[in-house]
């Protein structure tokens, strides 16, 4: 059995690297200029027929589908800001109140304030308090319940685009991953496109402001190469359809949104703010 001193040393050793990297990323964030003045929404392929999220969002609605209050700010900030900046009407649907520690009522208020920082009207932010969706690390939400709840919402408030978690749920939280099972009903009058937010590798996840810098270079290259790849019928190892990269100004707004989740701002969340690549860039894959 490991001794107490050994256990403490192990914990310290495990935490040292992320903490060191958090501070390094924070320093880099202050030194490196923002990658662009504008948050960019760009298709990964040069002529992607699947590039539906573009600069002409006027009159179109996007729904951010999340599991807990704070998911929107921690993971989807670049997408929310990118869509807003390009004229999309963004709405938020959160399937729980985040009541794992009995703070549901407080967290709903934080959710509304967070979306308020992103410029959403309060009437466009909805959450559910439904026993089918407990905020619980051990609970996989049933796909039929997710399907029912989101379909009910959409029948009242249709969306052109829905963005939600992929099957890995970014942090491997089963509540997040459960949302990936949702599929919009086929419709000829109001088709809805569904995008998943790609779960990044550990390196990208904690790459802070370096993430958009590398992404833009990498995807620029992929775009150029995709013409040749099509010619020779080669499949490029790029798994996203859309890349969204934040400007420095929008990153600051994302941090402000996250700070509205006061009940969740423990010390390690500041480490997340400093080192998170997802606060700077999102990769989206079109599902349907
Ligand atoms: Zn969550």
UniProtKB/TrEMBL annotation:
<dbReference type="InterPro" id="IPR024078">
    <property type="entry name" value="LmbE-like_dom_sf"/>
</dbReference>
<keyword id="KW-1133">Transmembrane helix</keyword>
<keyword id="KW-0472">Membrane</keyword>
<feature type="transmembrane region" description="Helical">
    <location>
        <begin position="12"/>
        <end position="32"/>
    </location>
</feature>
<protein>
    <recommendedName>
        <fullName>N-acetylglucosaminylphosphatidylinositol deacetylase</fullName>
        <ecNumber>3.5.1.89</ecNumber>
    </recommendedName>
</protein>
<dbReference type="GO" id="GO:0000225">
    <property type="term" value="F:N-acetylglucosaminylphosphatidylinositol deacetylase activity"/>
</dbReference>
<keyword id="KW-0812">Transmembrane</keyword>
<dbReference type="Pfam" id="PF02585">
    <property type="entry name" value="PIG-L"/>
</dbReference>
<dbReference type="GO" id="GO:0005783">
    <property type="term" value="C:endoplasmic reticulum"/>
</dbReference>
<dbReference type="InterPro" id="IPR003737">
    <property type="entry name" value="GlcNAc_PI_deacetylase-related"/>
</dbReference>
<comment type="similarity">
    <text>Belongs to the PIGL family.</text>
</comment>
């Amino acid at each position: 059995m490991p001794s107490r001193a050994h256990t403490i040393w192990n914990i310290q050793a495990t935490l040292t690297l992320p903490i060191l990297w958090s501070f390094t990323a924070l320093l880099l964030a202050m030194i490196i200029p923002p990658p662009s003045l504008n948050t960019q929404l760009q298709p990964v392929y040069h002529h992607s027929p699947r590039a539906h999220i573009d600069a002409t969002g006027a009159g179109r609605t996007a729904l951010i589908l999340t599991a807990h209050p704070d998911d929107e700010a921690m993971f989807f900030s670049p997408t929310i800001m990118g869509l807003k900046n390009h004229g999309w009407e963004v709405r938020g649907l959160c399937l729980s109140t985040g009541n794992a520690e009995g703070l549901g009522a407080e967290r709903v208020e934080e959710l509304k304030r967070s979306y308020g920082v992103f410029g959403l009207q309060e009437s466009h932010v909805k959450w559910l308090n439904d026993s089918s969706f407990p905020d619980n690390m051990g609970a996989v939400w049933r796909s039929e319940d997710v399907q029912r709840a989101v379909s009910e919402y959409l029948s009242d408030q249709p969306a052109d685009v829905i963005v939600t978690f992929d099957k890995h749920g970014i942090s491997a939280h089963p509540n997040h991953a459960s949302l990936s099972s949702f599929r919009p009903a086929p419709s000829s009058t109001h088709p809805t496109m569904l995008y998943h937010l790609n779960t990044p590798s550990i390196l990208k996840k904690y790459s802070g402001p370096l993430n958009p810098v590398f992404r833009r270079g990498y995807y620029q290259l992929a775009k150029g190469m995709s013409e040749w790849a099509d010619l020779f019928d080669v499949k490029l190892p790029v798994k996203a359809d859309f890349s969204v990269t934040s400007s420095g100004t929008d990153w600051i707004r994302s941090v402000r949104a996250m700070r509205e989740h006061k009940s969740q701002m423990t010390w390690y969340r500041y480490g997340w703010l400093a080192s998170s690549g997802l606060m700077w860039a999102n990769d989206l894959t079109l599902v349907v």
